[in-house]
Amino acid sequence: VEGGANLLDVNMDEGLIDSEKAMTRFLDLAAAEPEIARLPVVVDSSKFSVLEAGLKCLQGKGVVNSISLKEGEAEFRRQARLIQRYGAAVVVMAFDEQGQAVTTDRRVEILSRAYRILVDEVGFDPTDIIFDPNILAVATGIEEHNEYAVTYLEATRELKRRFPLARVSGGVSNLSFSFRGNDAVREAMHAAFLYHAIQAGMDMGIVNAGQLAVYDEIPPDLRERVEDVLFNRRADATERLVEFAETVR
Prior knowledge:
This protein has helices at residues 19-31, 34-37, 48-55, 73-85, 104-122, 148-162, 183-200, 220-230, 237-245, and strands at residues 8-11, 41-44, 63-67, 89-93, 95-96, 99-100, 129-132, 167-168. It has nine helices and eight strands.
């Protein structure tokens, strides 16, 4: 809250703890703190039972992060109806029965199908739908990953064109996983990506609110190398950023 967050993403997924119990306890404690309780909560888990435990604790309108078509349309509908009953908005991941979407077309195809089910069959308010077209790691050294940032931006543009009332989000820190341990480079990557993603129509992102650089304040030589990677502008973009990263640790 002090870092300037607009929503709080609460995740208690950990193999060694009782996630349902931890989620309930944490949200009950947070609700008793006026400074924290004034912000909407995003209940975040890969297990639906944990999401539901969280929904039971929320005061006012919350957000569920997330559901997807991974387990088929029937389960997707069931989960969506429950979320609707709790009055929450929902994040929908670009995932279906075939797996995670990595191309522009697959992202748009999966999320368009999810939108139709939510709006036409479940009766969801379009403004309560938040698309997450999958922000994935770039500069990993694997060639297929080089287009991941570009295709996210393309998918975002197309989704906003088709569904102007829905929102678009994403886990921004996923982008820079290959630079774990180097905060200077990670913050520059997040700031540059957010700058371009917002222009493409992104409405919100999961970031560390207290750790965001300002696009115009990124040193020009670092910004150039970061954007070469994000837009896949040259074959040696990853090598150049990795080399440069050593000088700004």
